[in-house]
Design a protein that fits this description.
Layout lengths: L2 H6 L17 H29 L4 H24 L12 E3 L4 H10 L2 H20 L1 H4 L5 H23 L11 H20 L3 H4 L1 H15 L6 H5 L17 H30 L5 H20 L5 E3 L1 H10 L4 H16 L1 H8 L3 H23 L6 H16 L12 H7 L3 H14 L12 H8 L5
Antiparallel strand pairs: 1-2
Helix pairs in contact: 2-3, 2-4, 2-15, 3-13, 3-15, 4-5, 5-12, 5-13, 7-12, 7-17, 7-18, 7-20, 8-10, 8-17, 10-17, 12-13, 12-14, 12-20, 14-17, 15-16, 18-20
Length: 460
């Protein structure tokens, strides 16, 4: 629908932007897809940089890992958004390298090597795919009160990352410098201004407009470093098993356990996408297909020298921010990611965007994720039971990581799983939902998703 069309359409006409199967004209779809790529790009390539550093890899191998990360993220995004048989949510979900596995993968990479990381990731991907296949029988673990908590946790726990970008990036020697804060403020102001005061197309591309203006200003003031662009090759195809793959039980166990808990994050992102963008809960097929896509994409990633794949939460916030829920827009973004993986110079150019420029946009997106979780919880009964689940989940997720000495005596693998806050918070929500009695009015209210699962035995 063009802007003129939207002005002449009846007031009660459905908003086609909230239809996952709606394909905007290319003149709108291309910039919308590019801003999805820009929102996740740095986060996607940061993980291989961190792991390569932990394993003390030479620059050439590090570059290969970065290229593989972009290439596989594009393929995984196409699988998730377009679907392959029963696999894929067929929703506007951008896939990328998961930050959640970094605390576990660093000791594996430094002690056993990168091939052991890929072997453990393959096992974890199989575990995730099996959970997706059996989701009908384990869905009771994830009622609205639990998934709502997950979405809020994802948004709130990402906010410090957003402010780290605003300050110039993790470990930046000039962190918090005035020009970093100025660039972030410029992007923030343009994005919010267009989103709130513009109409139609200009409202939808607020994040992209902010990023482009911020990048131009940063380049004009000498903040952008183009050295990586000059040094990058023109064309290269990632090859399977180029780094190798090894299986060590000590590496597989923590990664598989983390993979099973990560399913809750995937469900939270799927629910956040449909609730925040389309004002509805996901169907059973969207949930099972989405989780299976996460698992099988992780298996594919481990074969092609990339790390575990999962939906990128900042792009969930992008969907809620723009109001465009077209899966074809995201699929187009997946195509751009594949190109970035095949043409290293293109990837290097996008990677040259300063962290502060990204910070001005992702900070809004992370906040939108948290607000989507609040919106989800607004549909449940705020009974004493649900209030305890919400309160204790947030208390553990936000409070425990601030005091690592509390769990310093636990095994190192357990400590690494507690550091992010998401895993202990998720476990708290799931366990409390199982053990607390649900005898109060409103506790048995089931969501549309749960009702659909109960009524249907066959995939819809």
């Amino acid at each position: 629908m063009t802007q003129t069309d939207s002005q002449t359409a009846p007031a009660n006409a459905p908003d086609e932007r909230k239809d996952v199967n709606y394909m905007p004209p290319l003149r709108r779809a291309v910039p919308l897809s590019i801003q999805h790529v820009l929102a996740m790009f740095v986060g996607n390539v940061t993980v291989p940089v961190i792991i390569a550093g932990a394993a003390d890899l030479p620059p050439a191998e590090t570059t290969a890992l970065i290229q593989a990360a972009m290439f596989i993220a594009g393929i995984a995004t196409l699988i998730q958004s377009l679907g392959v048989g029963p696999i894929g949510a067929r929703l506007p979900i951008v896939m990328g390298t998961s930050f959640g596995f970094v605390p576990v993968m660093i000791p594996i990479a430094s002690n056993l090597g990168i091939p052991a990381v890929f072997g453990a990731a393959l096992a974890g991907g199989i575990a995730m795919a099996l959970v997706g296949l059996c989701l009908r029988w384990v869905r009771f673990l994830f009622p609205p009160v639990v998934t709502g908590c997950f979405v809020i946790m994802i948004g709130v726990l990402l906010l410090p990352v957003g402010f780290a970008y605003v300050g110039g990036g993790f470990g930046a020697p000039d962190f918090g410098a005035a020009y970093h804060l100025g660039l972030a403020a410029l992007v923030f102001a343009i994005t919010i201004g267009l989103h709130q005061y513009a109409r139609g197309f200009w409202s939808e591309i607020g994040p992209l407009a902010g990023l482009v203006v911020g990048f131009v200003v940063a380049a004009a003031t000498g903040v952008v470093d183009f050295s990586d662009v000059a040094g990058a090759g023109w064309f290269a195809v990632p090859m399977p098993l180029e780094v190798g793959i090894e299986f060590h039980l000590s590496a597989i166990i923590p990664v598989v356990l983390l993979s099973l808990v990560t399913v809750s994050e995937s469900i939270g992102d799927i629910v956040g996408t449909t609730v925040g963008g389309a004002d509805r809960e996901p169907t059973h097929r969207e949930l099972t297909g989405g989780v299976m896509a996460d698992g099988l994409s992780t298996v594919l990633a481990s074969v092609f020298n990339a790390f575990p794949q999962i939906s990128f939460s900042q792009n969930v916030g992008m969907v809620a921010l723009t109001g465009v829920v077209s899966r074809f827009v995201v699929a187009l973004g997946g195509g751009f990611l594949i190109l970035a993986g095949l043409f290293p110079k293109l990837g290097a150019l996008v990677g040259a965007i300063p962290n502060a420029v990204l910070g001005g946009a992702v900070l809004i997106m992370f906040g939108m994720i948290a607000s989507a979780g609040i919106k989800m919880l607004s549909h449940i009964g705020f009974t004493k039971r649900n209030m305890v689940i919400i309160g204790m989940t947030l208390a553990v997720a936000l409070g425990l990581p601030e005091h690592p000495d509390i769990y310093a005596g636990l095994p190192e693998n357990v400590q690494s799983m507690l550091e992010s806050g998401l895993i202990p918070g998720a476990l708290t929500a799931i366990i409390l939902n199982l053990v607390l009695p649900s005898a109060e009015p409103g506790d048995h209210e089931e969501s549309a998703t749960e009702a659909a699962i109960e009524e249907s035995v066959q995939p819809d």
